[in-house]
Amino acid sequence: MLAEPGHYDYAPYTGRPRIVWPGGARIAVWLAPNIEHYELEPPDNPRKTPWPRPVPDILNYSHRDYGNRTGFWRMADVMARHGVRGSVSLNVAVCDHFPEIIERCCALGWELFSHGTYNTRYFYDLTEDQQRALIADSRETIRRASGQSLDGWLTPAITNDETTQHVLAEEGIKYTLDMVHDDQPMPVKVRNGRLISVPYSLEVNDVPLFQNRNTPVERYTAMVKAQFDQLYAEGAENGTVMCLPLHPYLIGQPQRIAALDAALAHIVAHDGVWLATGREIAAWYTEHYYDTVSSWLASGTPGGRR
Amino acid sequence: MSGPGIPNYLDYKWRRRGLDHDRFPHRNLPQARPTVWPGKARVAFWVAVHVGHFPMDMPRTPFVAPGGVDRPYPSYWDYTQRDYGNRIGIYRLMRALDARGLRATALLSSAVATRYPALVREIAASRWEVAAAGVDMGKLHHGGLAEAEERALVEEAASTLRGAFATPIRGWHSPAHSESMRTLDLVAGAGLDWVADWINDDMPYQVTTSAGALTAMPLAWDLSDQRLLFQQHMDTAEFVEQVLRAFATLYGEAARSGSGRVLTLTITPWLMGQPHRIRALGGLLDRILDHAGVWPATAAEIVDAWRAGG
Question: ipTM score of the complex?
Answer without folding.
Answer: 0.98
